[in-house]
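Please produce the structure of this protein holding iron/sulfur cluster.
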Amino acid sequence: MSQTAPLIDPFARAITYLRVSVTDRCDFRCVYCMAENMTFLPKKELLTLEELDRMCSTFIRLGVRKLRITGGEPLVRKGIMTFFNGMKRHLDSGDLDELTLTTNGSQLARFADDLVAAGVRRVNVSLDTLDEQKFADITRWGRLKQVLAGIDAAREAGLRIKINAVALKGFNEDELFTLQEWCAARDMDLTFIEVMPMGDLGNEDRLDQYWDLKDLRARLGERFTLTDLAESSGGPARYVRLEETGQKIGFITPLTHNFCESCNRVRLTCTGELYMCLGQEDMADLRAPLRASAKDDLLEDAIRKAISLKPKGHDFDYSRQAVDGQMSRHMSHTGG
Ligand code: SAM
Ligand code: SF4
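Below is the modeled complex.
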């Protein structure tokens, strides 16, 4: 592939990681993510599978080394394996280091083998509870058994799995060690995510449910010896190792400012909007330049211009017990 100048933002951060939402649709309705009655985008607004391929391939040409596919639920997008199979050529050529996805796990039993064949080696599966009733409550439409079967299928197919659990006070507080032990028994890493003030529904509830990960970490420390791991993904996750089990536990605290300086990522929505920062409204429309020309020049220019506008950091703040810097868009739109 021809080498062009890599993407470097105004704060000297190289942009090497692209998260791509391939659909705004989902077969679940998690209470912190979606309203029960969602109106989804008309199909013509969405990037087609071919457009998604062109978009990602252009980013890869500009230096992106890691792609994470998300949504909505990426595995409910019709024909999505065509896209994954297409991206495999970039893994094969060595231009892409990693192709991965974040999924609710509901379709994994169907797709695990195909994902492995497309070069996927690791997946993040979101799972907040191991209790059937609580799972049904938090996801509204989800069934725990189906997700557990998906996880089993993925492990059998040889995929490495990381579990992501949103930490919710009064909801899964009592499952901290159950989740940890369940993951340890399956050699799966576990990451907790601090709940974010996304969307426009029930934010007061979310403030009530806000569970400080410092507290969660302290509770883990009462039972285990925690060793901080220096490794950083350039994102908002910090990791510790539990010395007694060797297990890696992650903490994603998007509301703190401790990661912006190493931020290497941008997010593309399913309509082709590029968000330069999860916590800022600033975005660039990449669909128009993509559709305006069959060649990629306009698109490349638009990407470079967008990256030159990547802000230094974000404005989330829970500290005044009010949701400041609140985002009006849903996680399912920007892809979490
Ligand atoms: N449907 C897939 C899934 O659930 O893994 C991918 C998309 S989902 C939007 C990505 C991640 O965002 C999930 O781990 C989900 O738990 C998380 N998420 C959604 N809303 C959130 C919120 N308000 N605060 C924190 N995490 C949230
Ligand atoms: Fe769907 Fe994932 Fe949002 Fe849950 S968190 S509603 S599974 S997109």
